[in-house]
Amino acid sequence: MDSKVRRRGALHQGKRIETIETLEISEIIETANPLRNGPLCDKIRIMIKGIGIDICDIKRLQTAIKKNKRFLKRVYSEREIAYCSAKKNSILNFAGRFALKEAFIKAVSTDKTIKLKEIETVNNAHGKPEIVLSPVIKAILKKKKGKSLSISISHTHDAAAAVCIIT
How confident is the model over 32-36, as a mean pLDDT? Predict the structure, then answer.
């Protein structure tokens, strides 16, 4: 295992170290982890039940939308279509939401029967995207023993990416 030498006069957990000692890397990580050994360790226990990430190619999605007029209505809710269509560069918003739908499916990984349209994304009062907790989504979270969703969407001109973490 890798080790690290601590020199005379260094501080460790607020104590001055007077000798040279060698610590295993695992000891350093263990003592530096505030969730494990800090004041929060008894109060915070985060267990990730599922994680998913997806990248959506903007041009590919644009082609799919142009080829199939029903694509938008099959994949997005009316609220999502209205929100994205109102934006200057709507395809970026559609792509971000599509990536999020795929990321959610990967995060739950046990339920591939869910329809993309059932995964609806809206923005809260602060503009942060959130997945609507419909009865279908609640049932999936219950089956996965998840209590909350953390999501993030980002995009460039070429691609959109999203991550979904179930805790």
Answer: 54
